[in-house]
Amino acid sequence: MCCRVLWSDQTVVVTLPGEVDITNADAIREELLSVINQGAEIMIADMSKTRFCDSAGVSTLVRAFRRATSSGTKMRLAVGGLAVERVLTLTGVDRLIEVYPSVGAALGSPVSSSSADTSNSSGRSPGTTNGGG
């Protein structure tokens, strides 16, 4: 098991490691897919402690998101590091998957039927910026 998984009813928080890369991307993907297969309504991938994410990690997130969408699971990301946030922005993943500044913010957001890509910044709290400065 690569990740800590905490369930609360139909909501689950999967805590990803400090580095998400080619060395652990397959194990992370399997963990995320397992959670989806267990019927989670909302799955939050907690990347608040993740400081590095390469293309294999990005691919893992996108593949899990596609499976989640087809299974009716809402997938959200909690991202605390600017480096990871930048990778998600550069690759466009932040327009595909809802990104929040913390697990608490992701948990506090109501489940909506609208698609994440129709509201790019809806998941961010008012004081959150993209780090440009």
- What is the H/E order? EEEHEEHEHHEH
Largest sheet: 5 strands, mixed
Strand content: 15-25%
Helix and strand composition category: alpha/beta
Give the helix proportion (percent range).
25-40%
Q: What is the helix tally? A: 5
Instruction: Give the tally of β-strands.
Output: 7
C-alpha end-to-end distance? 38 Å
- Spatial strand order of the main sheet: 1-2-4-6-7
* Radius of gyration computed on alpha carbons: 13 Å
Average the pLDDT over all residues and give the rounded result.
86
Q: What does the overall shape look like?
A: globular
Poorly predicted runs: 113-133
Provide structural commentary.
The protein has 133 residues and is an alpha/beta fold. The chain is 38% helix and 22% strand. The strands form 2 sheets. A 5-stranded mixed sheet has the order 1-2-4-6-7. It is globular. 37% of the residues are buried.
Helix and strand topology:
Elements: E1 4-8, E2 11-15, E3 19-20, H1 25-37, E4 42-47, E5 52-53, H2 55-71, E6 74-79, H3 82-91, H4 93-96, E7 98-100, H5 103-108
Parallel strand pairs: 2-4, 3-5, 4-6, 6-7
Antiparallel strand pairs: 1-2
Helix pairs in contact: 1-2
Please give a handful of descriptors for the protein shown.
7 strands, 38% helix, 22% strand, 133 residues, five-stranded mixed β-sheet
Describe, in short, the structure shown.
The chain is α/β, with parallel strands linked by helices and 133 residues long. It is 38% helix and 22% strand. α1 packs parallel to α2 (55-71).
